[in-house]
Design a protein that fits this description.
Chain lengths: 156, 81
């Protein structure tokens, strides 16, 4: 079931984490858990200059919405916000924000962890890392093959 | 039948193609489509074991039969977040 006050967005401009949180928080919540993923300055000791993210946007939106519906089924939470940035990102800039609001902390923590882990396995977004000596596509999660070879029902 | 084919990430760089229309005979499966591109771009064929495929924005099996108008994408391991 989709919840009309959830937020699912792919954006090319800077993500304002506080604004996403403010849009999702409501008086009946008692907890909000925020995951803010941002660009690290190194990869395995090599200094990163910047990143570029690309996406299969129509499918990414479909998968993020499926994730949102699944999170509502699995956890007693109130609202979900998932915002991922695309294009070029500089060191320290936020690439993804996940916000979960709920009445109590445990469900919000669990749902937030589930959301970022699932996003990294399932949502078609790719990261290219630029270094002084060149660029490489990130290798992705090890569980990728497992995630995608499972039937649709178990990942959506 | 006519299929729209999309490549992403490293696969887009290998083929030099973001998207293309392909003409396939009836009964063709996702794998048949990939084999065709693998012949055209031998480097692409090396990725067969590590990539995923989707049909109409849903993860699909390599044996899935295609229908005209389908949108097929070849997807390297995702690395968002």
């Amino acid at each position: 079931m989709a919840h009309s006050d959830d937020i699912f967005l792919l954006v090319r401009e800077r993500i304002d984490t506080e604004e996403v949180v403010a849009q999702l928080k409501a008086p009946e919540d008692g907890a909000v858990v925020v995951f803010d993923g941002f660009v690290r300055n190194n990869f395995k000791g090599q200094r990163t200059l910047y990143l570029e993210y690309e996406s299969y946007e129509t499918m990414a939106y479909a998968k993020i919405r499926e994730m949102g519906a699944e999170i509502h089924q699995k956890f007693p939470i109130h609202r979900v916000g998932i915002v991922h940035r695309l294009g070029r990102l500089e060191i320290g800039e936020t690439s993804v924000v996940i916000v979960i609001t709920s009445a109590h902390r445990a469900a919000a923590f669990d749902a937030c962890r589930y959301a970022i882990d699932t996003l990294k396995r399932v949502v078609p977004i790719w990261k290219k890392e630029y270094f002084a000596g060149g660029a490489v596509w990130a290798e992705g999660e090890e569980s990728w093959q497992e995630a995608i070879s499972r039937p649709k029902e178990s990942i959506s | 039948m006519r299929i729209r084919v999309l490549f992403f990430g490293q696969l887009k760089e290998i083929t030099g193609l973001a998207q293309e229309e392909a003409e396939l005979s009836d009964g063709a499966k996702v794998d048949d489509l990939f084999e065709r591109y693998g012949r055209r771009f031998p480097k692409l064929a090396e990725f067969r074991g590590s990539i995923a495929t989707s049909v109409n924005q849903e993860y699909a099996d390599w044996r899935q039969p295609l229908e005209t108008g389908d949108e097929v994408a070849f997807l390297p391991p995702v690395s968002g977040g």
